[in-house]
Amino acid sequence: MAKSRLIGEYPVIGIRPTIDGRRGYLKVRESLEDQTMNMAKMAADLFEKNLRYSNGEPVKVIIADTTIGRVAEAAACEDKFKHAGVDITLTVTPCWCYGAETMDMDPSTIKAVWGFNGTERPGAVYLASVLATHAQKGLPAFGIYGRDVQAADATEIPEDVREKLLRFGRAAVAASSMRGKSYLQIGSVTMGIGGSIIDPDFIESYLGMRVESVDEVELIRRMSENIYDEAEFQKALAWTKEHCIEGFDKNPKEVQKSRKEKDQDWEFVVKMMCIIKDLMNGNQNLSEGCEEEMVGHNAIAAGFQGQRQWTDFYPNADFSESMLNSSFDWCGAREPYILATENDVLNGLGMLFMKLLTNRAQAFADVRTYWSPEAVKEATGYTLTGKAAEAGGFIHLINSGAACLDFNGESKDESGNPVMKPWYEVNEADQEAMLKATTWNAADLGYFRGGGYSSRFLTKTEMPVTMIRLNLVKGLGPCLQIAEGWTVGLPDDVSDAIWKRTDYTWPCTWFAPRVTGKGAFKTAYDVMNNWGANHGAISYGHIGADLITLCSILRIPVAMHNVSEEKIFRPSAWNAFGMDKEGQDYRACKNYGPLYK
């Protein structure tokens, strides 16, 4: 797998096997040693086989050297975990233990407890007791308890327990992976968009990250003074010329750029991409005398202002944004970057959340237009069917060319179904298919006076996706919106008729949310009408439940979602804040406050 682009180790999961500390004639503790340690080994095996860091490596899991029956062993475990860089702990037990003595007391770790559902020993009693102690001490922990009773010598983790363990593990690894990293804003506020107004306190307090800022003129300085990797640039330019198809130019003939000017723009935007990578994560191949530029900003995500000061004069960043957000480039498959167009940091962070949960490329789009069945019929004569009809219409997701190429749905799984794969599963056939389905059209000179190229594709097939929006609300703080649904395939003539009513040179996707018939999810119109901003971040798959768990770790309440209640998994202390799940979340997040306050 790939070497990490970032400074700092990946988070480690530590397994804490707790046990009844009583010894004596009946050998209570001794009789439980194997069962308890086997639970720890099963959990570790589950994590190692199913969870990966963003670079594709399996997560690292360690187990305490001994079972933990009394406080001295808890202290020894904590000492081992601190030296190993453990950020996440899972306590497991099949029996009663001394809760306050054996629990994880480190306030900096993300915690869960799995109590075995068996009749021989009261694992459930310990689970309830220690979770109450966690709540009493202000150390929220996730509680995991299987629905069905198991035999004491069971060697399989039940499916419901497995689901919760993996949901906790994915969310905890995602949350911990952000700690100590940077969000790099290149430029600042785009056209007055609130999402690109950086709030460093939110990023520091809730995510444990820092904000780095670079003026866009730094790109021009590096181009002018040759502060970039010339070999990489030439390789990237040659690959771009061979694989990136130039599309039609929609601009009036009299203002279109000449062939020479367009070729210069290609060189410019490819060089931009190389330099933005260097700004984010550094480049040891820069020439002598550029030692300062070699180190980068340790950015796990970034945003580029672009409009308007940049794009009124220089080629836009659509190529850089689209290709960096994709799961491959001239080096083949590689971990996607997160680069938010218009420096919409809130959308960029939403993309980051979902990338860390899925290891897939993420799409950035305007939540542009709601199309009712009646409006589609009037405009095209077509009657909606399938998911779009069920949702009472669909939402047009379209942006000026920053969406990852993976979003065109041209990758296929083993059965030939459209998919957006984890980046380390993207093969050459997938890359070729994505590139062939994408053209790079000359930028609309009304929007982008400096020129450039915008990616253009149509998502033609149905895929399960999740769209989210992270918002900041004065007096409340951050909150998240989640809409699970599907991309929608329409007949080509219908797509063309609707697409041409906006910008026909931008990537185009039709989205139908899963509706519930009530509230914000009554219809697709209600989703659009309740959406908190003009942008959305979109991931492959229905991952709303994982996002809810992640947000509870980060203390970010979820304002709107269509995830079924039985999938909602938050720390057990949330149950003390009322009976309604949404209200619980708001009150608990307010009570505990930011994770890094």
Which descriptors apply to this entry?
single chain; 597 residues; alpha/beta; Rossmann fold; L-fucose Isomerase, Chain A, domain 3; six-stranded antiparallel barrel; five-stranded parallel β-sheet; 19 helices; metal-binding; isomerase; manganese ion binding; cytoplasm
Plain-language structure description:
By secondary structure, the protein is of the alpha/beta class. The protein folds into two domains: 12-178, Rossmann fold, CATH 3.40.50; 182-592, L-fucose/L-arabinose isomerase, C-terminal (L-fucose Isomerase, Chain A, domain 3), CATH 3.20.14.10. It is 36% helix and 19% strand. The chain has helices spanning 28-50, 71-84, 99-102, 123-136, 159-178, 200-207, 217-224, 230-243, 259-281, 291-294, 318-325, 345-358, 373-380, 386-390, 428-436, 492-499, 524-530, 544-554, 581-592, and strands spanning 12-17, 60-63, 86-93, 110-115, 141-145, 182-186, 210-214, 245-246, 299-304, 328-329, 332-333, 339-341, 363-371, 394-398, 439-442, 453-456, 464-473, 477-488, 508-513, 535-540, 558-560. It has a six-stranded antiparallel β-barrel with strand order 13-14-19-18-17-20, surrounded by four helices. Strands 2-1-3-4-5 form a five-stranded parallel β-sheet, with helices on both faces. A hairpin with a 3-residue loop joins β17 (464-473) and β18 (477-488). The longest helix is centred in the first third of the chain and has 23 residues, at 28-50.
